[in-house]
Task: inverse folding
């Protein structure tokens, strides 16, 4: 007779992980569309909302939907941990044989999950959505995204697919490998690229938000996530800092030699205050930039050594 530990977990075919914060108006329209998609796929499913505590009625709206549909679940965190942590919490908590990550604002069409799931069945481990166009996004955010992907792919040890976000579907194998990584800073795109396996993309046109404005991926939020991705997956900025230091030291040596040469040949040198200020300011800025970069790496080491959890769950509904 098999023990209770040997009894296999009954897993739904697919889990939908949805990080949310202050999204009370988007919950019902999102569920209307995603439930139709899942019904057409004829699969067993769970929809897992991961909620940073919100000052609005987001939690109450989701709780009401749970009473209507027993396949909906809710995780509420003890405080606001941010979208990366909320997303990772959903991935590591879900029970599905496959897991799709999508935002609730309907910029990413739930209908694409059907195609992504079908593609996953073609022996792929990850299918990510690649944006052909981005409606409703500001020019600064597009610039941050474009420059961010370029810099990360040039300097990082892993290559991130351009024009992608967290909207993707993953196999159970990838979920279990994500669990093994156990990193404090959960940059999903980088972690999935690091894991590898057979991956592919499906292109789509991104829509505007249905209601309100985003509370997760604003300009500085996207910038912070991009910086986290670069620092977490590459040490080359430190190497570049060393090279830049050597070049500047060489430049300073040559500049000093040039002044000595002028003095020896009899030029009347009158030190200029503006030149002194410019040189001092330039090198002070370089030093502060390098110290800040070193601080980012030291901060990551500090967080990893403490081994604090990425998130703390306050309560679960319908588990």
Result:
């Amino acid at each position: 007779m098999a023990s209770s530990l040997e009894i296999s977990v009954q897993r739904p075919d697919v889990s939908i992980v949805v990080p949310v914060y202050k999204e009370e108006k988007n919950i019902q329209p999102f569920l209307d569309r995603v439930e139709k998609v899942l019904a057409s796929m004829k699969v067993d499913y769970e929809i897992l909302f991961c909620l940073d505590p919100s000052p609005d009625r987001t939690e109450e709206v989701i709780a009401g939907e749970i009473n209507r549909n027993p396949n909906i679940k809710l995780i509420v965190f003890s405080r606001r941990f941010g979208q990366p942590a909320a997303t990772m919490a959903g991935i590591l908590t879900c029970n599905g044989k496959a897991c799709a990550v999508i935002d609730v604002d309907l910029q990413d069409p739930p209908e694409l999950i059907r195609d992504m799931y079908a593609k996953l069945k073609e022996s792929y481990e990850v299918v990510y959505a690649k944006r052909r166009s981005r409606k409703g996004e500001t020019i600064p955010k597009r610039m941050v995204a474009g420059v961010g992907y370029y810099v990360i792919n040039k300097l990082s040890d892993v290559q991130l697919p351009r024009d992608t976000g967290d909207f993707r579907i993953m196999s159970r194998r990838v979920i279990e490998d994500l669990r093994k990584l156990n990193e404090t800073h959960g940059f999903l795109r980088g972690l999935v690229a690091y894991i590898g396996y057979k991956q592919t993309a499906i292109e789509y046109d991104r829509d505007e938000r249905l209601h309100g404005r985003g509370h997760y991926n604003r300009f500085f939020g996207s910038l912070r996530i991009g910086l986290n991705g670069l620092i977490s997956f590459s040490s080359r900025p430190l190497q570049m800092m060393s090279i830049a230091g050597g070049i500047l030291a060489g430049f300073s040596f040559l500049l000093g030699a040039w002044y000595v040469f002028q003095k020896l040949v009899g030029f009347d040198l009158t030190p200029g205050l503006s030149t002194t200020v410019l040189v001092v300011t330039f090198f002070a800025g370089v030093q502060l930039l390098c110290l800040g970069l070193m601080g980012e790496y030291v901060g990551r080491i500090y967080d990893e050594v403490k081994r604090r959890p990425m998130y703390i769950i306050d309560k679960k509904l319908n588990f």
The longest helix spans residues 273-306. The chain has two domains: 11-217+309-317, 236-266+274-306.
